[in-house]
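Example S7 (structure tokens).
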């Protein structure tokens, strides 16, 4: 293995989850993320089915402390647990949640692992929040909304959404004025909470 490959693996955090200690931390954070997933908060000016949960918080903290691989694994386990216990979408919602979650975690944790500075973390987080908005829009437009349209007529979904936001008149405006703001707000709130908790938790997570 050459030096560049070794550095790359180190920055991605494979080493940190390749031990019993690392896997234990990932498992604890995954279960915590799964439990948090059941707590959902509505946003009054967005459609009622868009409710914020903070289950990406343990994954983001894990990604920053242990590397991107840990954050991705936490997101994967969290959504798998939700899939086998409570899915209402046959896995479509969990897959979309996974994609949106790692869209935030990968840029944030890679940037922090590379630079190890507050500026590096903030740069990665900003990129991650923007990525979260984009991936969330695509996941909803091409996966979630078509799925829900099979269960409930799309016109009814639009009417329900329009009651919360009159600018929503079709599927595109639902994504633009509902889904995108929702994911941007969620990303901002998760990163703010991470900022409060990370310094207190990171010494424990980094302890060998």
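Recovered sequence:
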């Amino acid at each position: 293995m050459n030096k560049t490959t070794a550095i790359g693996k180190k920055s991605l955090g494979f080493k940190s989850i390749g031990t019993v200690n690392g896997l234990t931390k990932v498992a604890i954070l995954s279960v915590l993320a799964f439990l948090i997933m059941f707590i959902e908060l509505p946003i009054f000016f967005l459609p009622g089915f868009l409710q914020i949960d903070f289950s990406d918080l343990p994954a983001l903290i894990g990604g920053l402390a242990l590397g991107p691989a840990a954050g991705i694994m936490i997101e994967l386990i969290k959504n798998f647990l939700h899939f086998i216990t409570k899915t209402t979408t046959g896995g479509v919602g969990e897959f979309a949640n996974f994609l949106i979650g790692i869209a935030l975690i990968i840029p944030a944790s890679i940037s922090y692992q590379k630079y190890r500075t507050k500026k590096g973390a903030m740069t990665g987080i900003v990129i991650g929040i923007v990525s979260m908005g984009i991936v969330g829009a695509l996941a909803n437009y091409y996966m979630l909304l078509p799925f829900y349209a099979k269960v409930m007529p799309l016109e009814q979904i639009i009417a329900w959404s329009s009651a919360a936001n009159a600018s929503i008149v079709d599927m595109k405006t639902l994504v633009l004025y509902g889904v995108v703001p929702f994911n941007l707000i969620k990303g901002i709130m998760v990163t703010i909470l991470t900022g409060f908790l990370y310094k207190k938790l990171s010494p424990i997570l980094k302890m060998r």
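Notes on this example. Residues 3-39+49-206 form a domain with the Arp2/3 complex 21 kDa subunit ARPC3 fold (CATH 1.10.1760.20).
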